[in-house]
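Box 3.1 A note on notation
Throughout this textbook, protein chains are presented in two layers. The first layer is the amino acid sequence; the second is a token string describing backbone geometry. Keep the layers aligned when reading.
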Amino acid sequence: MFLSLLLRPSLPEADVPLIPLAAGVGILEALRCLGALAELKWPNDLLIAGRKVGGVLAEAAWGEGGLDSVVVGAGVNVAVDPGAEPGLVSRDATSLAVELGRDVPVEDVAALVLEQLALWYHRLAAGGRTDIVEAWRARSVPWWGRSVEVNVGARSLRGVACGIDDTGALLVEVDGRVQTIVAGEAQALRLG
């Protein structure tokens, strides 16, 4: 299931980067309403038992007067069994049907996702910046203090995940210095 939402936010510019975090929390809460024990992985993935079940993408459009719109894309693998589909990597992906052991009507998933997206977006719009960041932190994978690798474009960084800052950027300690990563792909490293 994929939903695409067009937002015309009247947020302070500093809160715009928090829209994907608010969307991630909203989708996660929808999945939890269905009984799925999902977690968030920076920057935009939803995981169940360490395997990807969904994600969020957001793109802002700016005009002469500032922020014009934000398109939020929200995807959830509702029914496809990655292990049964040729070409899909079953160890990295899952679906609600696999994890819950039952079929869930896509309409029910979509309705819950839209309801929770609206709730968390309106919380952000009402000045709930701190609520969004704290909610995201509380629902994230337990990486903090663990070794991670972050790919930022062609560059790869290895260090220790420290958390996210108040803008949603990932904080990684590399060689004794904390680096702030605003975009990239992160994964926990298994050492040993």
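The first helix runs from residue 19 to 33. Helices lie at 19-33, 96-100, 106-125, 129-138.
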